Design the sequence.
């Protein structure tokens, strides 16, 4: 039989198969490691943004809004714009509309 010696340009199929299998295993574990890391980051973000957020009491929010509607306060002091209580503002608007209607009645012949 002929004695076949390996030449430098022959393919080493066992090494190719070994590198392919090892590469596949490494890729498989890397994919799962990245997925686990992503899930870990997602859990920590969920805890930080959802669970640890200070709860605002709805009563305090409503109380702040009611106070804003019933107090005098500056909106823009440079432009002399103030906020007045809502009840007083409604009365002023009603009075102005009544005056407009009376003026419109007197102007008609």
Sequence:
């Amino acid at each position: 039989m002929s004695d076949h010696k390996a030449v430098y340009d022959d393919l080493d199929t066992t090494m190719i198969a070994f590198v392919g299998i090892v590469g596949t295993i490494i890729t498989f574990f890397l994919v799962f490691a990245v997925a686990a890391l992503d899930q870990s980051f997602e859990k920590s973000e969920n805890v930080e943004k959802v669970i640890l957020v200070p709860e605002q009491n709805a009563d305090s929010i409503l109380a702040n809004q009611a106070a804003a509607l019933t107090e005098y306060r500056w909106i823009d002091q440079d432009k002399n714009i103030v906020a007045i209580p809502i009840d007083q503002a409604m009365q002023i608007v009603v009075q102005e509309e009544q005056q407009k209607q009376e003026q419109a009645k007197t102007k008609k012949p």
